[in-house]
Structures are given as structure tokens and as C-alpha cells.
């Protein structure tokens, strides 16, 4: 409506007034809605003095890098450098099984990579970038700390991985947070009027540490990540085909690092299991497991065992939050 168009004009003006005519701005794109809308807005205001980086940490979903890069480049014409850091991340994660340790390693590695990107850019430009764009939303600003003793990092702490604290002091980057007064549905509306594809704006949330929190234990062992990607893709496509994607807060597959016996054809198998997780929620703080149709589940189970080598069993997670969390780690 007219209201969000006014917000857009207002935001563009603020960005133009803030960023000097020779200033350059950097932004880390996660592939999520918030950073994408924030970058699109800044790009509209200052053009190619915005420089974005998208980091492939080796923990992304099936074809995720290709898909988001296509949206960035073809739909949004954003200037994006795609950094393939798969090897760096996975070598650091080798043998690591403790969930919080995995998160910390991923967060630190991200800082290193983004830091190197910023310094390379400085060399190329012959001057330091002046600003860093972040997709902070209003709820992130007002959100309180995670419950004491929960041992979990919540979104505000998590986003600090991506913020100025992780960059070298000599950069002295100032923050631009153009979404910090908006709620999620307003961000989607703002994205829509700037031409961000609606299917992109409706994507389920995805955690920063990626598939690492969906492979309990060592993520680098065997081809766990590939097995998980294939099963997850089948699950998500089936959900989209059934027309229920928008009724679900989050849906994903989880790799079960446990070998069980099965029989496929006339072969005895000793393979892994996949758990399916789908929840409804308002804000991710509490969640209910989603009631699928039995026929849908039966077909899905058959497909996953037939199509994903190394899987002979499919489980359904029927736990709400609390007592469980949405992710498995
Ligand atoms: P949990 O598993 O705590 O997840 O019930 C709640 C919501 O937060 C997401 N999540 C994360 N997001 N970094 C993120 O950016 C993280 O480390 C992280 N852990 C959980 C989760 O996907 C869900 O939407």
C-alpha cells in the first residue's frame, strides 16, 4: 500500500543523507530475508558503492548457493562476491562434536572470512569502506537475553557474529540498520515493493550455523552433509508441492548418526536414519509439531529411502518446543 512506499522513500533519503558521496558500504548476505532486503534498500540508495559478500560455509542446503546467487544477481542486480569457504569451515569442524563449540567455530570462521573480504576490498578501492549494513529488525532491538542457564545463543547474540565487533578496529565501520524499526511482515512488504521475489520473502528461517545444527556430532564424517541435503530437498519440495509450505514455520530433515539394519531389494543394509522436523510457531520461541497427512508421510518415507543412498529409515519428530528446541543442536 501507499504507507510502505512512504517508508521506502523515507529510508532511501536517510541512507543518502547518511552515506557521504564517496563513501563505500559493505554487507554480508546470509541468503535470508532481512539481509537481502536491507542490502536491496541500500543498493537503491547508493548503487554500486555497496559491496556485498555471500559466504558458502559448506553447511548450506541443496543448491542454496546457486539459488540465492541467482536471486541476488538476476532479480536484484546486487553487487555480490560469492566466497567459497567450504574447506576452511569443514577443516575447522573436523572431529568437533560439542554443539556450542561447533557454533563458536562457525561464528569465528565467519568473522575471519568477512574480515579478509573487507581488507581485500579496501585494497581494491584504495580506501576503507565506511559503513556496514545489517538487517537488524525491531524485535532484535527489543529482544531480551536468552533465558539464564538455557545454554543457547539467541538471535541477538548470534547476529553479533556478523557485526562490527568482529571487524578490525582500524576499519572503524559505522552501522547502517535500515530495518531496525520494522517488524518481519513490514520487511517482507518493503522487499516486495522493491522487487524481491515473493517466494524468496516467504522462505522459512534458516539458522546461521546451517546444517551443522542438523547433524548431531561431527558434521564432516563420511557424506553426512550430502545425505542430509538430498533428504531435506525431497522433504521441502514435497511440502511445496502439497501447498502447505506457507502454513509451516520451519521444516527440515535431520541426519541421525546411527546405523540400523534394513532390507532393500534382496540386500540387507546397514544405513543411517533421517528424522523429519516441521513446526508451526509465531516467533520461534515456542513451537508445535506439524500434523502431516499420513499418506503424505508414507509417500515421503518411500521416496527418501529409494532416492537417498545411505538411508534406510525415516523418523518423524513429534516433539514441541518446549521441551525440545526447534533445531536438534
Ligand atoms: P531453537 O532451536 O533454539 O531455534 O528452538 C529457534 C529459532 O532460531 C533458529 N536458530 C538459530 N538461528 N543462529 C541462527 O541464526 C543459531 O545459532 C540458531 N539456532 C537456532 C532456529 O532455526 C529457529 O528458527
From TrEMBL:
**Role of this protein:** Catalyzes the conversion of xanthine monophosphate (XMP) to GMP in the presence of glutamine and ATP through an adenyl-XMP intermediate.
According to UniProt, the name of this protein is GMP synthase [glutamine-hydrolyzing]
Class of enzymatic activity (EC top level):
ligase
Metabolic or biological pathway, per its Swiss-Prot or TrEMBL entry: Purine metabolism; GMP biosynthesis; GMP from XMP (L-Gln route): step 1/1
Which stretches are transmembrane? none
Q: What is its EC number?
A: 6.3.5.2
| Domain (GMPS ATP-PPase) ranges | 2-203
* Residues the record lists as binding ATP: 30-36
Kindly state which keywords UniProt assigns to this record, in alphabetical order.
Answer: ATP-binding, Glutamine amidotransferase, GMP biosynthesis, Ligase, Nucleotide-binding, Purine biosynthesis
Its recorded reaction(s) are: XMP + L-glutamine + ATP + H2O = GMP + L-glutamate + AMP + diphosphate + 2 H(+)
For this protein, what is any one GO molecular function term? GMP synthase (glutamine-hydrolyzing) activity
The upper taxonomy is: Eukaryota, Viridiplantae, Streptophyta, Embryophyta, Tracheophyta
Q: Does the keyword Ligase apply?
A: yes
